[in-house]
């Protein structure tokens, strides 16, 4: 059994982690039910309690207590023209343009669309808001319109999850004789002005305005395929929760001073 606090693998049947002393729990990732320490399947929903990969196990364990807000609650908590501190996330599929040039449009979309869904699902799992979904990427917001004090951590949980899911999806594409795909993710935390716009369909959309989102977009273009790049401001808020690899300062268009960049390599 793996500890939800420090990630240490503990012996079956033990109640406390030998590394940090945290109480161990064999919690089902799907329904949240607690099970016997040696149980292999959930007694309530039948889902396997043995994770597919170590990376997936650690993300699931570390985020088991993250609360997801219902859509109607998000609407009730929406803001209009309010200054807020948020975490912006940009993600795109590397090489999607070349993919669409080499394949029939329908074949290309059959590969790209499932990847976009995996990315969107990862954001929504951690209560993020999809501001925009383009043909080959997404722009998401954490901390608005629904406020969460841990929005930087939620953004990186989502980034790690979508990277893991895309890796699995790439393996399936490779098994089918197709070239695997990868995504690049950029994350930045800072102040924006969030405003609401009522569309013609009567729906309300929330748009953040400010340098914070522009920098997140730039970081995404600087990230390596299959990697997540974050700013110094995000690092200060998540250090200790994630393994971060310093990439050094980088010159970014529109920013006077070089920006320190870090790669998120795990929990």
Describe this structure in words.
This protein has 267 residues and is of the alpha+beta class. 33% of the residues lie in helices and 27% in strands. The protein contains seven helices and ten strands. It has helices at 54-62, 71-76, 96-102, 105-125, 151-175, 211-222, 232-238; strands at 26-27, 34-35, 82-94, 129-133, 137-142, 182-198, 204-209, 228-231, 243-250, 259-266. β6 and β7 form a beta hairpin. The radius of gyration is 19 Å and the shape is globular. The relative contact order is 0.13.
Number of strands: 10
Radius of gyration: 19 Å
Intertermini distance: 17 Å
CATH architecture of the largest domain: 2-Layer Sandwich
Envelope shape: globular
SSE map:
Layout: E1 26-27, E2 34-35, H1 54-62, H2 71-76, E3 82-94, H3 96-102, H4 105-125, E4 129-133, E5 137-142, H5 151-175, E6 182-198, E7 204-209, H6 211-222, E8 228-231, H7 232-238, E9 243-250, E10 259-266
Parallel strand pairs: 6-8
Antiparallel strand pairs: 1-2, 3-5, 3-6, 4-5, 6-7, 8-10, 9-10
Helix pairs in contact: 3-4, 4-5
Describe this structure in a few short sentences:
With 267 residues, this protein is of the alpha+beta class.
Considering the chains and any ligands shown, give keywords for the structure.
267 residues, alpha+beta, Alpha-Beta Plaits, 8-stranded mixed beta sheet, 10 strands
């Amino acid at each position: 059994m793996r500890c939800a606090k420090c990630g240490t693998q503990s012996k079956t049947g033990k109640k406390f982690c030998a590394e940090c002393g945290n109480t161990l729990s064999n919690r089902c990732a799907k329904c949240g039910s607690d099970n016997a320490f040696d149980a292999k399947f959930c007694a309530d929903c039948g889902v396997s309690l043995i994770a597919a990969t170590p990376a997936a196990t650690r993300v699931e364990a570390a985020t088991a207590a993250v609360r997801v807000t219902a859509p109607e609650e998000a609407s009730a908590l929406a803001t209009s023209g309010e200054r807020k501190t948020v975490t912006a996330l940009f993600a795109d599929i590397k090489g999607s343009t070349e993919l669409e040039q080499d394949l029939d449009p329908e074949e290309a979309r059959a590969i790209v669309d499932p990847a976009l869904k995996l990315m969107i699902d990862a954001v929504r799992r951690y209560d993020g808001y999809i501001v925009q979904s383009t043909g080959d990427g997404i722009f998401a917001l954490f901390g608005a319109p629904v406020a969460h004090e841990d929005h930087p951590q939620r953004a990186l949980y989502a980034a790690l999850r979508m990277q893991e899911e895309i890796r699995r999806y790439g393996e399936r594409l490779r098994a089918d004789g197709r070239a695997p795909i990868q995504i690049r993710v950029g994350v930045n935390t800072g102040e924006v002005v969030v405003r609401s716009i009522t569309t013609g369909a009567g729906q309300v959309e929330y748009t953040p305005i400010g340098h914070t989102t522009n920098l997140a977009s730039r970081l995404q273009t600087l990230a390596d395929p299959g990697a997540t790049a974050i700013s110094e401001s995000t690092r200060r808020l998540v250090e200790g929760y994630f393994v971060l690899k310093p990439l050094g300062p980088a010159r970014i268009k529109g920013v006077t001073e070089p920006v320190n960049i870090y790669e998120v390599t795990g929990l």
